[in-house]
User: Which sequence fits this backbone?
């Protein structure tokens, strides 16, 4: 289903000017030449193309946001060393936060790179079914890990802030919050990927 | 691409013996001259009923298991008081574990009761669309909470077990493990509910 759209998309565009958006070019072509009925099937397919396009862009936007929040969490935690007893790497929960931030960075970075590459070149690196599986399970597992890491670091931070509120605890709180934001958005992305997976498999 | 492969797979197997798999039975039906057509629509509907039945039973089994593990986690944590410094309610993470275990107990208990009630009487308490939404979001949110609570309690337990390994820390570890099991199973249940939601909405 998925791979059959690019060839049929290419067919009607030999006379098209090198315009900006594909969908609009397609529209003007189907409107102008044919006085007979505009073809319900064609509009249905085009509406579906546009729907898939929105899904793709939404998925890319979600992952780019997660990349941003993971990067912030990583930077804030990695630079959080202020002398003995106030280094993040003396506590396993803060090392866990850092590790999961790096993992999330790698995952969302690779996925965003792949999506941008596919959008610009139009070539698919991974085929449809496997891609949907990787998308869904990748998003869901990284979301679980982000939540787990952020949750594990909260009690110790609370305990430290009861004693003294300084730059160390503030940076901890900031890093943990960024990781929670990343979790929320990646959870939404996982729902989107799951929707695409079920819809594709049982179309 | 994907939907075109099953038919081409069916073509080379018309002389196959009546095997155990459904697909092959289907094949032999279409191949034989079939004077009395056994009603393809009826078998299709019946297969779908059976499929839905399996989904329902699987969903009930998952939730009953989560109920069991939450109950264990709740009992082990609630009885875990062994004198000053060794009471679970002196630490916020262990109170969080207890609170989420109770929440999960309530949710899975109510859902299991509803499912058993519907199976025995055949009446639906909540209508289809709303039910699928409640199922999916309920499962997913409770799964996230279970993971969050279990994760938050792990670092403090580790730290205590470095000092001394006694009945208090053992009970903590047991309760946290039960909550992790509950999370795993409820995560699977959430995937099942999500599948049912997408399939039902866009059938």
Assistant:
């Amino acid at each position: 289903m998925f791979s059959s759209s690019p060839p049929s998309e290419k067919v009607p565009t030999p006379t098209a000017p090198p315009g900006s958006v594909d969908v609009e070019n397609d529209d003007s072509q189907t409107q102008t030449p044919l006085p007979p009925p505009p073809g319900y099937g064609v509009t249905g397919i085009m509406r579906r193309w546009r729907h898939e396009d929105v899904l793709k862009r939404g998925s890319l936007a979600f992952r780019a946001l997660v990349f941003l929040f993971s990067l912030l969490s990583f930077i804030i935690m990695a630079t959080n060393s202020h002398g003995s007893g106030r280094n993040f790497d003396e506590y396993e929960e803060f090392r866990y936060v850092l590790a999961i931030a790096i993992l999330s960075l790698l995952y969302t970075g690779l996925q965003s790179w792949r999506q941008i590459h596919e959008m610009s070149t139009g070539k698919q690196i991974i085929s449809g079914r496997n891609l949907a599986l990787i998308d869904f399970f990748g998003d869901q597992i990284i979301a679980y890990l982000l939540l787990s890491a952020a949750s594990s670091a909260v009690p110790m931070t609370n305990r430290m802030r009861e004693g003294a509120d300084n730059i160390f605890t503030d940076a901890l709180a900031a890093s943990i919050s960024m990781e929670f934001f990343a979790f929320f958005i990646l959870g939404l992305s996982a729902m989107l990927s799951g929707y695409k997976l079920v819809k594709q498999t049982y179309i």
About this structure: Confidence is low (pLDDT under 50) at residues 1-39 of chain A. The CA atoms of residues 69 and 178 of chain A lie 5 Å apart. Helices of chain A lie at 5-10, 22-31, 40-78, 92-121, 128-163, 167-201.
